[in-house]
Amino acid sequence: MKVSFLVPDLGWPIVGIAARMANYLHPEHEVEIVGPNLWRGANIMYAAEFAYRPVDCPRLYRLPEYFWESRKLTRALTGDVIISMKAFGSNLPAALRAKRERGCRVVAYLDEWDGAVAAEWSWSERLRQWTRDWMHPGNNVYVPWVERRLRECDERLVTTQFLAQKFAGRIFHIGVDTARFQPQDPEAVARLKHQLGLSANTLLVFGGVARPHKGLEVFLEALVRLRRTDCRVVILGPHNEYVQQLQQHSEYGALVCCPATTPEAIQLIHREMPLYLGLGDALLVPLTDTLLARSQMPCKLFEAMAMGKPILANAVSDVPAVLGDGGYLLPPNDVAATAQAIQALLADPAGAAAMGQRARARCVAHYSAATSRQELLNILQALR
Q1: Nearest residue to 38 via CA among 51, 25, 26, 54
Q2: Which end of the chain is more exposed for a tag (fewer CB within 10 A), N or C?
Q3: Do 105 and 4 meet the contact criterion of CB atoms below 8 Å apart?
């Protein structure tokens, strides 16, 4: 069986999930990852993980060119099964057109509710967005229309109970390679800590891309409240505009460290992510209580659990069910509760270490790459 993964854009981070799923299926199945090449290449963090097949359709996000540009994607899809990574105008309609024309199966993979942004608009904002973006079918204004077509898919793989209820989906977790993500050599970690100039600091490490809906500022405000000027929050994702805003903050800017300041550094950190996560005295999995966050299950939670480190996570979405007793579960946007948890964790290293061990054991038992791989193979087998 041949499987085609169709991403909305090769420059988006979702290509990393597609690459991991594709590698799960190979060599049992022939696989390809196809997508528009609107960012002139695959996402920098995942460019080396798969041989992506770009489709030249530069006018995909504009009417009326959208209609024939989308057909280029349909013609590029040769799989017996097409897995549409997200449900955007730039990919799901092309996959469903292939289903109508040649009878292939279509699976949608949803890692968050992309329509949450539009769902929270006021009527005046909705009108403003339509007036501005009605000619751009890849934008948020069209997401609700595309999502209505999810019922035409043969299967919908989702990452949370929220999405399962909303789209009648089947929960599928991408899992983590627990042989790669595991406790690291202390000497190697100490060398890296020295190299980054952080030897004197207690480190809270966040292994993802920092965005406003993650709520990292709550952890920083908690450190200020505790007067822990020796602590640093290390962000391993790209040094983006949001990170710059955090670093420029008058109260906690000096507590933020982000070593991924160049494309080369971004690739290095991604390649050596387990070692960089090993820097943490604790690992952070932050989320705010927004409609978008309630639909998400951060892949970074599984990586953090596999590392055997104590975890500070917000009790949003399915995080409590997945993490169990393997970490501190914090109410979102609560600086006082966050400060109390940080203080308790740092005051009891033995208890924190035991918590990290429980998290790893839980991850190995339920969320390993081997478990997810077999589940994905079973899903494809059922589609034959």
Answers
A1: 54
A2: C
A3: no
- Spatial separation of the C-alpha atoms in residues 222 and 211, rounded to whole Å: 18
Share of the chain above pLDDT 90, in %: 83
Beta bridge partners of 2: 30
The DSSP 8-state label assigned to residue 368 in this structure reads B
> Contact at 8 Å (CB) between 294 and 316?
yes
Amino acid in the structure at residue 301: L
CATH code of 2-175+370-383, in short, is 3.40.50.2000
How far apart CA 47 and CA 13 sit, in angstroms, is 10
User: Which whole-number Å values give the CA distances from 329 to 171, 292, 319, 324, in the listed order?
Assistant: 22, 19, 8, 9
User: Which residue, chain included where needed, has tokens 């279509």?
Assistant: 106
Residue 308: what residue type? G
d(CA 42, CA 63): 25
Longest dimension (CA), the chain: 64
Over the chain, what is the mean pLDDT? 94
pLDDT at 121: 87
Please determine, looking at this structure, whether the domain spanning 186-367 carries the CATH number 3.40.50.2000: yes
CB 170 within 8 A of CB 156: yes
C-alpha 374: how far from chain center: 21
- 377's tokens: 């193979």
- DSSP per residue, 108-153: EEESS-TTHHHHT--HHHHHHHHHHHTT-TTSGGGHHHHHHGGGGS
- Pick the closest to residue 46 from 271, 261, 303 (CA basis): 271
| Same fold: 2-175+370-383 with 186-367 | yes
pLDDT tens-digit series, residues 20-67: 999 999 989 999 999 998 766 677 778 778 889 999 998 998 999 999
Residue 335 pLDDT class (50, 70, 90 cuts):
very high
Coil vs helix vs strand at 8: coil
Start-end of H helices in the chain = 14-25, 65-76, 92-102, 116-119, 123-133, 143-148, 161-167, 186-195, 216-226, 241-247, 263-271, 273-277, 291-294, 299-306, 319-323, 335-347, 349-366, 369-383
Cα gap 75→79, rounded to integer Å = 11
Q: Give the start-to-end residue ranges of the domains of the chain.
A: 2-175+370-383, 186-367
